[in-house]
Amino acid sequence: MAQLCFFAGTMDCGKSTLALQMDHNHRARGLVGVIFTRLDRSGEARLSSRLGLSTPAVEVGEDLDFWDTVVAQLSAGARVDYLICDEAQFYTPEQVEQLARIVDELDIEVFAFGITSDFRTELFPGSRRLIELADSTQVLQVAALCWCGRRATHNARVVGGAMVVEGEQVVIGDTAEPVEQGEVEYEVLCRRHHMRRMSSTAAHAAALSADVLPFDLNACPVPPST
Ligand SMILES: Nc1ncnc2c1ncn2[C@@H]1O[C@H](COP(=O)(O)OP(=O)(O)O)[C@@H](O)[C@H]1O
Ligand SMILES: Cc1cn([C@H]2C[C@H](O)[C@@H](COP(=O)(O)O)O2)c(=O)[nH]c1=O
């Protein structure tokens, strides 16, 4: 029996790489799949991994109906054994429901990949619906790390080195440093540092100022107030 599987994790934990591997392994056994994505960093209608691999994909616009798309392909005589759905956090809840229907009524496997929460730690609507409906939700094993060395569990949005917690939910970007100053970048953090709004730049600055703190109090002309 087919299943709706959600592979979740922070940014940069290998979701798109796994999506490409799942596609490769299924194709290698003669199965036929359709690859979908939405708003991939590399441009429209491509699924790309930071490891350098990428493949053409069907771009999921807001109006795309997965059920109609797959039924049209089957009606035209094409075979469809599985769907790969990357950047699934950006899908609408209705589109996730269409995916569940495809699994249940057409017995087609659906492998969805996405980040669960946004830069404010709030669930994306697509991810919320996936968590509600999926047969399984798996957190990827390869841990992305916070600058402190702990497992990164949250995504932070950073502008000019400072973490921001207000803004549009969707702003496409990367975890690499932006080319243009003032552009949005993302950084993965552990919960502790996400809640303290401590990006690596802020931590570095704090470490530098701590280095200059232990000055000689006796040399101070005015006694410091307590
Ligand atoms: N130069 C590299 N060498 C080895 N692994 C790398 C390199 N660059 C990126 N990666 C791996 O790729 C992962 C990101 O993969 P990607 O599929 O793009 O992530 P996601 O889709 O979850 O954002 C990183 O966590 C890291 O494990
Ligand atoms: C946290 C967060 C992320 N995004 C965007 C940034 C990237 O374009 C994608 C995630 O891609 P990845 O392959 O998982 O690295 O999502 C966003 O729009 N809003 C957010 O809050």
Automatic annotation (TrEMBL):
Is rRNA-binding one of the keywords UniProt gives this record? no
Top class in the EC scheme: transferase
Q: Which UniProt keywords apply?
A: ATP-binding, DNA synthesis, Kinase, Nucleotide-binding, Transferase
- Its name, as the record gives it, is Thymidine kinase
Could you tell me what reaction this enzyme catalyses?
thymidine + ATP = dTMP + ADP + H(+)
Q: What is its EC number?
A: 2.7.1.21
Record's Gene3D superfamilies? 3.30.60.20, P-loop containing nucleotide triphosphate hydrolases
Is the keyword Transferase assigned to this protein? yes
Q: Which family does it belong to?
A: Belongs to the thymidine kinase family.
NCBIfam families from the entry?
PRK04296.1-2 (NF003297)
Which InterPro entries does the UniProt entry name for this protein? P-loop_NTPase (IPR027417), Thymidine_kinase (IPR001267)
PANTHER family attached to this UniProt entry: THYMIDINE KINASE (PTHR11441), THYMIDINE KINASE, CYTOSOLIC (PTHR11441:SF0)
Gene Ontology terms, MF aspect: thymidine kinase activity
Q: What is one Pfam family matched by this protein? A: TK
Domain of life assignment: Bacteria
